[in-house]
């Protein structure tokens, strides 16, 4: 299956071989901390992850008015999965169904740690949930917000408060324990929400855009805490996000949802290299130029002929096949001349600027060919300017339905 977890994928993502916690919801034998890390490191080294029971596995069906979500999901211990898709495609509904916040339909066959959902109460599913707005109980102190979960799970008041105090320290807001939940800032609230989610000792975290409402400084801190806690605890993760950096930093595998169905599944390290769907390509910031293959060239629908020399072409593509050219804006540059028409540095073609667009941190020129090129803000070309374009890196792949 695409995206099965491997050590190389994790390291390609900039993470060291990831600790995986050898526990699943409902399991009685639990390994934590160093035990789990060493056990899993050796499993990863021998490639023997297939024997781990999935923490979540099976069909998830949720019906909401005219919308139906129907998804087969498999999340393995310690695996981190990003859930992406357009607004309203069902990302939050997936998490809500699994976490008992939306009703699962009878057709659902999902199991938690091998146990059928019907016989697994929500509190026994091993889930911690953090949404965009931390949703603290406003009438409780910060400490009691975090102690609420352990207390509900049967801990004494004192034990629950001790756990809560430790969790608040772990996310660096121990000093807020006695504050009212009403008085905290957005960044503090999300840290407290992490402490509260972790206080029930979950095996899996559900993060539903937890950084989206934070300002730049707070989001950097909360992201760092999330990454650290997920890694240190070897948590499995389902992350709903609209942010490429979060997807790349926090996940190993991506599922792309459209209208309640999974339309694509890929390793995160392939997101910027070989996305299949239009949504995944746009999410990764790639230009996606339709056309077809000619001898030694890719011909765009607009009639531009791009020599293939220096580009990556999917094996098996034959002349005449419908194809897509995928290129990241920072691998496409505007140049003054057509000195090189192919070679190691990539083909050069004549194009024209259609418009300037922003991607949040940079200015991009959208070109007549459909390519995007990053441009320096002090040398902005105007719409209509004829330019030469060097494609330093691009991939030509078969066109697919999505
Ligand atoms: N409580 C609800 N009752 C009825 N319909 C709902 C409810 N919550 C969501 N929906 C509908 O379910 C569909 C999926 O919504 P959902 O919130 O899961 O999408 P999403 O992918 O998370 O979107 P976004 O990216 O905008 O957060 C939408 O059509 C939405 O209107």
UniProtKB/TrEMBL annotation:
<dbReference type="InterPro" id="IPR003439">
    <property type="entry name" value="ABC_transporter-like_ATP-bd"/>
</dbReference>
<keyword id="KW-0813">Transport</keyword>
<dbReference type="Pfam" id="PF00005">
    <property type="entry name" value="ABC_tran"/>
</dbReference>
<dbReference type="InterPro" id="IPR050093">
    <property type="entry name" value="ABC_SmlMolc_Importer"/>
</dbReference>
<keyword id="KW-0067">ATP-binding</keyword>
<keyword id="KW-0547">Nucleotide-binding</keyword>
<dbReference type="InterPro" id="IPR027417">
    <property type="entry name" value="P-loop_NTPase"/>
</dbReference>
<dbReference type="GO" id="GO:0005524">
    <property type="term" value="F:ATP binding"/>
</dbReference>
<dbReference type="InterPro" id="IPR003593">
    <property type="entry name" value="AAA+_ATPase"/>
</dbReference>
<dbReference type="GO" id="GO:0016887">
    <property type="term" value="F:ATP hydrolysis activity"/>
</dbReference>
<protein>
    <submittedName>
        <fullName>ATP-binding cassette domain-containing protein</fullName>
    </submittedName>
</protein>
<feature type="domain" description="ABC transporter">
    <location>
        <begin position="50"/>
        <end position="284"/>
    </location>
</feature>
<dbReference type="InterPro" id="IPR017871">
    <property type="entry name" value="ABC_transporter-like_CS"/>
</dbReference>
């Amino acid at each position: 299956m695409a995206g099965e977890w491997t050590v190389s994928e994790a390291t390609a993502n900039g993470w060291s071989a990831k600790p995986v916690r050898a526990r699943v919801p409902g399991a009685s034998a639990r390994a934590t901390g160093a035990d789990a890390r060493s056990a899993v490191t050796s499993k990863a080294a021998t490639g023997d992850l297939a024997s781990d029971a999935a923490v979540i596995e099976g069909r998830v069906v949720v019906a909401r008015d005219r919308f139906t979500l129907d998804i087969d999901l498999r999340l393995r211990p310690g695996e981190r999965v990003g859930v992406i898709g357009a607004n309203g495609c069902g990302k939050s509904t997936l998490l809500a169904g699994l976490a008992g916040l939306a009703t699962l339909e009878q057709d659902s066959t999902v199991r938690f740690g091998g146990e059928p959902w019907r016989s697994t109460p929500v509190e026994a599913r091993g889930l911690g949930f953090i949404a965009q707005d931390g949703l603290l109980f406003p009438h409780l102190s910060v400490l009691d917000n975090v102690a609420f979960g352990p207390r509900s799970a049967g801990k004494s008041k004192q034990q629950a408060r001790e756990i809560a105090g430790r969790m608040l320290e772990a996310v660096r807001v121990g000093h807020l324990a006695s504050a009212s939940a009403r008085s905290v800032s957005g960044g503090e609230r999300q840290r407290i929400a992490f402490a509260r989610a972790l206080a029930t000792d979950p095996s899996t975290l559900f993060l539903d855009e937890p950084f989206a409402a934070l300002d730049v400084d707070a989001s950097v801190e909360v992201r760092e805490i999330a990454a650290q806690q997920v890694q240190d605890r070897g948590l499995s993760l389902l992350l709903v996000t609209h942010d490429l950096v979060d997807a790349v930093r926090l996940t190993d595998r991506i599922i792309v949802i459209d209208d309640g169905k999974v339309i694509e599944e890929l390793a995160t390290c392939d997101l910027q290299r070989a996305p299949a769907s239009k949504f995944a390509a746009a999410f990764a910031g790639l230009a996606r130029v339709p056309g077809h293959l000619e001898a030694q060239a890719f011909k765009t629908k607009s009639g531009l002929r791009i020599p293939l020399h220096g580009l990556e072409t999917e094996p098996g593509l034959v002349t005449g096949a419908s194809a897509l050219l995928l290129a990241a804006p920072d691998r496409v540059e505007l140049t003054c001349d057509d000195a090189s028409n192919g070679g190691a540095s990539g083909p050069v073609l004549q194009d024209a600027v259609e418009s300037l667009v922003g991607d949040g941190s940079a200015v991009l020129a959208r070109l007549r060919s459909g390519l995007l090129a990053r441009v320096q803000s002090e040398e902005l070309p105007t719409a209509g300017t004829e330019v030469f374009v060097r494609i330093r890196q691009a991939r030509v792949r078969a066109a697919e339905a999505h």
